[in-house]
Amino acid sequence: MSDKTTEGILDKISFHVEEIDFELANADSIANWLEQVLEMEDKALNSLSIILCSDSYLHNLNVEYLQHDTLTDVITFPYTRAGKPIEGDIFISIDRIKENASQFNSTFQHELHRVMVHGVLHLAGYLDKTPEEATIIRAKEDFYLEQFSA
Fold first, then answer.
1. Per-residue pLDDT for the chain (150 aa), expressed as one digit of tens each?
2. Residue among 123, 109, 98 at smallest CA distance from 43
3. What is the CATH number of the domain that holds 107?
4. For residue 59, how many other CB atoms are within 10 A of its CB?
5. Residue 148 CA neighbour count, 13 Å, CB half
6. Is 77 within 8 Å of 61 (Cβ atoms)?
7. Do 123 and 76 form a contact (C-beta atoms < 8 A)?
8. Which of 18, 50, 51, 21 is nearest to 33 (CA)?
């Protein structure tokens, strides 16, 4: 990891930056919100790192670890054993977030928060491989995004 780290107020959630010049606004509020999401999902949290990075950084991880030669906005790596508190890393491409926000006529902040909660929901056990799973995780994203903006 680079030495550009923004620690959340919570010891359990940290934010890091790799290969980009980016500063996360409201890191403490976001960390609190994400911990509340996990609490509402009845999941205990041990540690979570959110790494904000470039397209090339995330693409390299996608090829190396998942054998997917594509760009993506988020990759989640869970390290939790069954029945244990959640531990994991969520890698997010800031380049993809910017492009998605424009493509979906959304704000950068909204898209960033959507992808963050998407990663957290994966750690909580939600999948999105089938149309049914995708519908469920999208509904959860929308619900928790409304909670954060309230």
1. 443 444 444 589 999 999 999 999 999 999 999 999 999 999 999 999 999 999 999 999 999 999 999 999 999 999 988 889 999 999 999 999 999 999 999 999 999 999 999 999 999 999 999 999 999 999 999 999 999 875
2. 123
3. 3.40.390.30
4. 20
5. 26
6. no
7. yes
8. 50
Alpha-helical regions (H) of the chain:
27-40, 55-66, 94-103, 108-123, 131-149
Global confidence as pTM:
0.91
> What's the domain range around 128?
5-149
Q: How many domains does the chain have?
A: 1
Cβ-in-10-Å burial (0-12, 13-18, 19+) of 115 comes to: buried
User: Two tokens at 65?
Assistant: 């670890």
